[in-house]
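Recap from last week: sequence in, structure out.
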Amino acid sequence: MRGKVKCVIWDLDNTVWDGVLLEGDELVPRPVVVETIKALDERGVLNSVASRNDPEVAMARLERFGLAEYFLHPQIGWNSKSLSIKKVAEALNLGVDAMAFVDDQPFEREEVGFVCPEVLCVDAADVAGILDREEFTPKFITDESKLRREMYRSAIERTAVEESFTGNNEDFLATLGMVFTISEAGEEDLQRAEELTVRTNQLNSTGVTYSYSELAEFVSSPDHLLLTARLEDRYGSYGQIGLALAERGTDVWQLKLLLMSCRVMSRGVGTVLLNHVMRLAQEAGARLEAEFVPTDRNRVMYVTYRFAGFTEIRRGEGDVVVLGAPETPVQEPPAYLTVKV
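Predicted structure tokens:
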């Protein structure tokens, strides 16, 4: 079964607008496309461009039509559409299997389908039906969904500053004024929490997804602790970027799930939420064990556990590896980060 589309990549000529730019046609934005782009944006689905055109001229026209702000990392030039899609996916840190591509030309759709079969290709003539398709409809549309594009815009600005920064990485992180906030999840957090378990693959310790109703049960259970983490800096909010689920026993706590958004992989905050859970377990006089299920995408999460001092202590059911936390004092957060609980 196909997963949800996280980014729609649009051709321009005879797709976003009627007419061909470089042939001097009078260009008219297609109302159904404009409506669809804005509706997807409201749902938290990103938009980008893959077009064979003069980039300056095409972007100027998108600016004139009031559409440029909706497109992240637009690829306008003479590359193949499949290469452009790969570049967008890399820039957004998303898999190509999370991409959809809309083009009026069968040749272009077939080229993308051959090189990137994971991409969902859509005929521009069928745009009117996109909003009704399950792949383009998130289960929940949260306040954070509506801000997703702006979060990516902030990330682009951060990256540009980082690339021009002349000091080392830790010196750069110190300029960001990062604040990491950990709180117990409430009902208002659960839609985004479910979305996180569905969307996050690389930094999900078990690959398990939880439904809204399952998460709600954990929130009301005295035997469980569900924590959420948010991150912000001087460029804006990263939103809710972390989730931890612990089963609290008298002598042993089981960390059933730990996940972090890929958006913060390079921000040096990977162990902060984990360290907080370790500290809480120690204060309760309990040992902390963590369940980990290796997948082809979550190697970084295993490294996070090992960096925090966890070691393998036994095998659980199926593919589960049980990791044990060290009994040594918990590491303090890095100096460039303010942690609020």
